[in-house]
Design a protein that fits this description.
The strands form 4 sheets. A 6-stranded mixed beta sheet has the order 5-4-3-2-1-17. It has 5 helices and 17 strands. The protein has a single domain, classed as 4-Layer Sandwich (Nitrilase/N-carbamoyl-D-aminoacid amidohydrolase). It has about 290 residues and is α+β, with helices and mostly antiparallel strands. Helix 3 runs parallel beside helix 4.
């Protein structure tokens, strides 16, 4: 299966951002991509650097304008798209939602971000209600997609449950970067940890992993910080954690790669982690902490 990864910078002009995405999706389709993955909240700026009630006006229903626009494109190009949208579910109820569009342009599934951070410059709890759709793969014409979102990528439980429910690959639309006050050494540790944990999910579950991150600097509207420099480095890893492709650290980038889904069967025969799981001894995993 050929997969397109689109890593881009975003500005305040949402129409321009979407036009750029459309152009990149078409470029992926010309290279034979069957699946194209976009970054987290790809239509606009990463607005969670501040808490501002006016931002809720950016949210949209699903189905809605974005699923209409990208659905038409998916049908035109015969590609499966993974979108990441600010969903307005009801008045006062909003989610950070990934949407999967089938080759016929129709919505075939969605995933609402389950793990919601609340850290300096990432005030997502102000905007997003935690997801309530569980960890369910989306069935598509190209396979079962285990779609998760950004902060979910740090949790092995989320990856494991997607794998246990039959996901054939794990997909993470992402928005993560550095605050400018971090030291060079700290920045390197953060980036290395981000890549390592996700490659670990690939290894532990014998599945390919695709992570598509934002890139470029976005200022803090409040001026209290120097903003976020999103670190890019979108990548795909195989079921042994092997890097298949890694995108630029500081530039927009579009790549199409081939993923061999049949390797999962071979790798799980060599490393039978699912066979050897001690499910009789894991009761404590459902506790917050064990004293």
């Amino acid at each position: 299966m050929k997969v397109g990864l689109i890593q881009q910078t975003n500005g305040s002009d949402r129409a321009a951002n979407i036009d750029k995405l459309i152009s990149s999706i078409k470029a992926c389709a010309r290279q034979g991509a069957e699946l194209v993955v976009l970054q987290e909240l790809h239509n606009g700026l990463y607005f969670c650097q501040t808490e501002d009630t006016s931002v809720f006006s950016q949210a949209e229903t699903i189905p809605g304008p974005s699923t209409d626009t990208f659905g038409f494109l998916a049908k035109e190009l015969s590609v499966v798209l993974v979108l990441s949208l600010f969903e307005k579910r009801a008045p006062g109820l909003y989610h950070n939602t990934a949407v999967v569009i089938e080759k016929n342009g129709r919505i075939v599934g969605k995933y609402r971000k389950m793990h919601i951070p609340d850290d300096p410059a990432y005030y997502e709890k102000f905007y997003f209600t935690p997801g309530d759709l569980g960890f369910e793969p989306v069935f598509t014409s190209i396979g079962k997609l285990g779609v998760l979102v950004c902060w979910d990528q740090w949790y092995p439980e989320a990856a494991r449950l997607m794998a246990m429910r039959g996901a054939e690959l794990l997909i993470y639309p992402t928005a993560i970067g550095w605050e400018s006050s971090d030291t060079k050494e700290e920045k390197e540790r953060q980036l290395d940890a981000w890549k390592t944990i996700q490659r670990g999910h690939a290894i532990a579950n014998g599945l390919p992993v695709i992570a598509v991150n934002r890139v470029g600097h976005e200022p803090d509207p409040s001026g209290q910080t120097n903003g976020i420099r999103f670190w890019g480095n979108s990548f795909a890893a195989g079921p042994q954690g092997e890097l298949l492709v890694e995108l630029s650290n500081d530039k927009e980038d579009v790549k199409v790669i081939a993923i061999d889904k049949t390797r999962t069967e071979s790798v799980r025969r060599w490393w039978p982690f699912f066979r050897d799981r001690r499910i009789d001894a894991y009761d404590g995993i459902n506790e917050r902490f064990l004293d």
